[in-house]
Amino acid sequence: MNSFMISDPNKCIGCRTCEIACVLAHSPEDALINGTIDKTFYPRLKVIKTAAVTAPVQCRHCEDAPCANVCPHGAIVNKNNTIQIDADACIGCKTCMLACPFGAIDLAQECKNGQVVMQSRLKVVTEDGDHAKEKVVGIKCDLCIGRSEGPACKGICPTNAFIAVEGKLMSASIADKRKSSAAELARLSGNIR
Q1: Would you state the torsion angle of the CA atoms of residues 50, 51, 54, 57, taken in this order, to the nearest 10 degrees?
Q2: 115: in domain
Q3: Is residue 38 part of a domain?
Q4: Is the whole model's pTM more than 0.85, yes or no?
Q5: Would the N or C end of the chain have less CB density within 10 A of its end CB?
Q6: Which residue has the higher pLDDT, 192 or 1?
């Protein structure tokens, strides 16, 4: 089973620290120093605040990921029990955004070395003439797969609202629940007779 992160809305205070940690984890190390963070400020999770709930929403790394199933270029793959978007293969068609049941996928300007990647042929026409168009790609929680410390959101949260749901642990938990349910059925059926 794939691993994923969820948050406890009873603990989340809506501070958005997780969003900042996410951006920094996916930015070049010197982004704050050289001033390029404004070009790459795209968190891969979104804190949602309503009158009833405050919680970050992020990718659940679905087993039969709808986003991967609809991607026309095969840019979304299962890698190390996580669902990942290959920015080099992504064409920014937005099909994955429509398919995601959690609204966990966004589009962002692709940046390399702190600079926005421009498309070679697609132009934007304005009153000032033709201008190169930036390349946009799908982004979503990747569980900070290349980060040795694990997901930045979990590590920075001041209220410990994030819960790492590991595939192996989830399978064991489900097995325990089934055993408890079967024992309860046996107990109830003994009272019914």
Answers
A1: -30
A2: no
A3: yes
A4: no
A5: C
A6: 1
100: Cβ–Cβ under 8 A, 6 or more apart, which residues? 59, 66, 67, 140
Find residue 137's DSSP bridge partners.
108
Residue 51 lies in a domain: yes
Beta bridge partners of 82: 79
Output the domain CATH number for residue 175: 3.30.70.20
pLDDT per position as a tens digit, 123-179: 899 999 888 899 999 999 999 998 999 999 999 999 999 999 887 777 778 888 899
92 located within any domain: yes
pLDDT, tens digit (0-9, with 9 covering 90-100), for 13-60: 999 999 999 998 988 776 665 655 666 688 999 999 999 999 999 999
Give CB contacts under 8 A, 24+ apart, made by 27-35: 28/113, 28/114, 30/114, 31/114, 34/114
